[in-house]
Amino acid sequence: MGIDLHRGAIAEVVVDFPPVNALPAAGWHALADALHTAGADPRTRAVVLAAEGRGFCAGVDIKEMQRTAGPEALLAANRGCAAAFAAVYDCPVPVIAAVHGFCLGGGVGLAGTADLVVASDDATFALPEVDRGALGAATHLARLVPHQLMRTMVYTCRPVTAWELHRFGTVLEVVPAAGLRRAAWRVAEQIAAKDPLVIRRAKESLNGIDPVDVKRSYRFEQGFTFELDLTGTGDRARQRFLEER
To answer: So what EC number does this one have (predicted)?
Structure first.
């Protein structure tokens, strides 16, 4: 349980936090560390980011926040998310996200900063942040869906399917769940067959021409989460979510 890193020409980083892969603050930092380690290894030519269990990622561990007095847990989670998303984005080699089941909140942050996304046919993507009294990862959702749909999803918390994202071209391939990891590896193998120096420079150059600074944009969003928490709105929404479950 936790974050597993399997090193090699194709490195695999696997998230495993039962029951729903809602990561505690330390888990986000562990994920960032694993991605840094994979990217720093000169043998690595591509990274597959996958998960075990019922879904790819349910976001942050709200229970951790609610059992911790004061703002420390919220701040730790937000810094952890920022670190993990940045580690995907800044990884010197392409990162292929293999998404199955639910991809919520922080999961969208990971998928939206990945270079490529391969998804299972049961995968859904959503930002339930407004219902949780928080904001964030619209920066990353905007890399997956058109602008007006992104706004609709933020305001209503409605999900979209992997097939919808495939029509937009932001999910490369939709496959049966049993073949998801293999499909992600097939893409990784195509990348790994290229000249590794060229691929690393390609990743750097593509990040350099991005129209939006995703790290700064996400931290701007997080500022409104801090504001909502100071008013007590965030805490009430998180508690209501736990009680309704």
So the answer is: 4.2.1.17
What is the SS3 assignment for 170?
A: coil
What angle, 0 to 180 degrees and rounded to 10, lies between the N-to-C axes of helices 72-90 and 106-113? 20
Q: Could you read off the pLDDT of 104-143 as tens digits, one per residue?
A: 999 999 999 999 999 999 999 999 999 999 999 999 999 9
CB 154 within 8 Å of CB 221 = no
AA identity, residue 5? L
Contact in structure between 165 and 144 (CB atoms under 8 Å): yes
6 backbone φψ class: left, alpha, beta (φ>0; ψ -120 to 50): beta
pTM over cut 0.90: yes
Nearest to 51 by CA among 8, 4, 95: 4
Residues in contact with 34: Cβ distance below 8 Å, sequence separation at least 6, in sequence order: 3, 4, 5, 13
Q: Of 221, 220, 238, which Cα lies nearest the Cα of 229?
A: 238
CATH code given to domain 2-178+201-244: 3.90.226.10
- Cβ neighbours of residue 143 under 8 Å, at least 6 residues apart? 112, 113, 170, 214
C-alpha to C-alpha distance for 120 and 112, rounded to whole angstroms: 16
- What would the two tokens of residue 196 be? 């590794």
